[in-house]
Amino acid sequence: MLMDEIIISVKAGNGGRGCESYFRRKDHKTVPDGGDGGSGGDIIIRSDIRTGSLVPLKSKRLFEAESGTLGGSNNRYGQKGNDLILKVPCGTTVFDETHGLLLRDLKEEGDEVIAVKGGRGGYGNHGGRQATRGEEGKSLDLRFVLSIISDIVLIGLPNSGKTTLLKALTGAHVEPAEYPFATKQPCLGTYEGEIRELRVCDLPALYGRSEEGKGLGNAFLRHVKRVKLIFMVLDPINSFAKDLQEGYHILLKELGQYDQSYLNIPRLVLINKMDLAEAQKRYSEQSLKAEEPQFEISALKKTGLETLMAHVTQQLTERLA
């Protein structure tokens, strides 16, 4: 199961204690020569393309970096504690839950943020200073929110055939079901085109009151944030809308109510299930007014998909040129 949000506790390493030491010279005078303690390790959050889930972060209650070591005599400094690097999927946003702050949005491979700096090492008594304890490493609660990075996202009403479409396009190991809200979490697949590969994400179904938390709610719409193209999957015989026009407006409304900026993402309208005589009949009786290009398809029979994906590949290639 996809975990797209988690809160964990972290603690940076403590600074090592400074050393109080004296060197006796040949003239019997004593000289302070205690070295400083080493700094504690930092807590670093790094995005990693090979990390596909936040689930490994459930393994501990508290993640701690290593403390610095003690200073030594003869002005020897303590070693810095090892940093603790926590790897998260690309597309993870890191928040300081303790203080209500955004730390960083980790979009690309290798992006990182130092969430907590390690405690400073204590002073040794060299140079006549007073030896001190190391600084305590700070603790924080961190919240990670994952927004899946994909090229295309599928949205639609219940039973619109999104999962069948994902399987037809990508060969993803998903099993379509004939009951509403069968897709309970985002599902991913890769379309292998002649020019480029495209990452496709199928989201759980929306309907007229998703923003009120009905059905499966709409929290999963966070995964629309980074997509390049939205497929609005409609079908003429869907029981969750009286006609295609109402279904179209429901999807637009849910997108806009979650995040108005989503309405600026390019969209295509797919009229699915056109292999069925009843769907063809109802489609001929309806008039869908939509600003987006429309494609008649059958995800089950895989008809119309070649034309659709040729258009998509050209559109995305032109945008990235």
From TrEMBL:
<dbReference type="Pfam" id="PF01926">
    <property type="entry name" value="MMR_HSR1"/>
</dbReference>
<dbReference type="InterPro" id="IPR006169">
    <property type="entry name" value="GTP1_OBG_dom"/>
</dbReference>
<keyword id="KW-0963">Cytoplasm</keyword>
<dbReference type="Pfam" id="PF01018">
    <property type="entry name" value="GTP1_OBG"/>
</dbReference>
<dbReference type="GO" id="GO:0000287">
    <property type="term" value="F:magnesium ion binding"/>
</dbReference>
<keyword id="KW-0460">Magnesium</keyword>
<dbReference type="GO" id="GO:0005525">
    <property type="term" value="F:GTP binding"/>
</dbReference>
<dbReference type="InterPro" id="IPR031167">
    <property type="entry name" value="G_OBG"/>
</dbReference>
<dbReference type="GO" id="GO:0043022">
    <property type="term" value="F:ribosome binding"/>
</dbReference>
<feature type="domain" description="OBG-type G">
    <location>
        <begin position="150"/>
        <end position="317"/>
    </location>
</feature>
<dbReference type="GO" id="GO:0003924">
    <property type="term" value="F:GTPase activity"/>
</dbReference>
<protein>
    <submittedName>
        <fullName>GTPase ObgE</fullName>
    </submittedName>
</protein>
<comment type="similarity">
    <text>Belongs to the TRAFAC class OBG-HflX-like GTPase superfamily. OBG GTPase family.</text>
</comment>
<dbReference type="InterPro" id="IPR036726">
    <property type="entry name" value="GTP1_OBG_dom_sf"/>
</dbReference>
<keyword id="KW-0342">GTP-binding</keyword>
<dbReference type="InterPro" id="IPR045086">
    <property type="entry name" value="OBG_GTPase"/>
</dbReference>
<dbReference type="InterPro" id="IPR005225">
    <property type="entry name" value="Small_GTP-bd"/>
</dbReference>
<keyword id="KW-0479">Metal-binding</keyword>
<dbReference type="InterPro" id="IPR027417">
    <property type="entry name" value="P-loop_NTPase"/>
</dbReference>
<dbReference type="GO" id="GO:0042254">
    <property type="term" value="P:ribosome biogenesis"/>
</dbReference>
<feature type="domain" description="Obg">
    <location>
        <begin position="1"/>
        <end position="149"/>
    </location>
</feature>
<dbReference type="InterPro" id="IPR006073">
    <property type="entry name" value="GTP-bd"/>
</dbReference>
<keyword id="KW-0378">Hydrolase</keyword>
<dbReference type="InterPro" id="IPR014100">
    <property type="entry name" value="GTP-bd_Obg/CgtA"/>
</dbReference>
<keyword id="KW-0547">Nucleotide-binding</keyword>
